[in-house]
Amino acid sequence: MGDWSVAEMPALDGQTVVVTGANSGLGFEGTKAFTRKGATVVMACRSVERGQQAASEIERAVADADLDVRQCDLASLDSVAAFAESVREDYAVDILCNNAGVMAIPRQETEEGFEKQFGVNHLGHFALTGQLWPALRASDGEARVVTQSSGAHEMGEMDFSDLLSERSYGKWAAYGRSKLANLHFAYELQRRIDDNGVDDVLSVACHPGYADTNLQFRGPEEMGSNLRLAGMKVANALFGQSAERGALPMLYAATAETVIGGEYVGPDGLLEMRGDPEFQQSNEASRDEGAAAKLWEVSEELTGVEFEVA
């Protein structure tokens, strides 16, 4: 694709974008870029206070930024449902960025008892997308669902006999599984869009490469390991690209005219860790249509959200 920056994004005046995890990291940078192009951004944040602080920072940088901070805790299906209901009442949604996530944390559970990385990174976004589907279909143009995965999907294994890591838990294995699930969901959603003749919504996946954000710090902080925290800060400084650059694949997937459903967008540099956005291929496991269909069914059962695409 060559050089691509926020400047290449089309005007988004009159469009509504929902971004999860909009108060920090990639979500914050994505929100700022969307507002620069004229979109109304609904900032879905676990903490309204931190969301409002982030919104104030963006408003100081972007004249006439149109931001709407709302509480959405992806670790609580009740919170997700309340958020989705409030958005459906107020907006047609043109772009949904399933961006928020947790990474490599000690084993914890969501409000419903799901392993937290799988629960937040996949199940929360599955439920959110399903419940915002009517608002996406109400878009005047072509709506997009952009789901943030990671190169760590290659570490993941979709073990349906222990999907919630109740018998065995490794923090990186669980993270990889959640990111593999993100790809299964993005691709399966597009297959169901195609199979049902839906021509006004696209599902696209992306990953940021190695971006210097606070995502990497949560695991060491919750473990109480100052040594691991210091090591992660050094690794971010040496290898990470900025959060602003890391947000580019998500922004490209959300807005570029060349994107078609089922694409996977990531950085074009060494080991896909940094660089400009390009179309890429995820691993073979992520393309397992049988596993993706089964995951969809299990996700409906676990969340109680009947996600009918037609």
Summarize the structure in short.
The protein has a single domain (13-300), classed as Rossmann fold (3-Layer(aba) Sandwich). Helix 4 links the parallel strand 4 (95-98) and strand 5. The longest helix has 25 residues, at 171-195.
Structure description:
There is one protein chain. With 310 residues, this protein is an alpha/beta fold. The chain has a single domain, classed as Rossmann fold (3-Layer(aba) Sandwich). It contains ten helices and eight strands. It has an eight-stranded mixed sheet with strand order 3-2-1-4-5-6-7-8, with helices on both faces. Strand 1, helix 1 and strand 2 form a beta-alpha-beta unit. The longest helix is centred in the middle third of the chain and has 25 residues. It is globular. About 4% of the residues have low confidence.
Give the SSE map:
Blueprint: E1 16-20, H1 25-36, E2 40-45, H2 48-61, E3 66-71, H3 77-90, E4 95-98, H4 116-137, E5 143-148, H5 171-195, E6 201-206, H6 215-223, H7 226-239, H8 243-246, H9 248-255, E7 264-267, E8 277-279, H10 289-303
Parallel strand pairs: 1-2, 1-4, 2-3, 4-5, 5-6, 6-7
Antiparallel strand pairs: 7-8
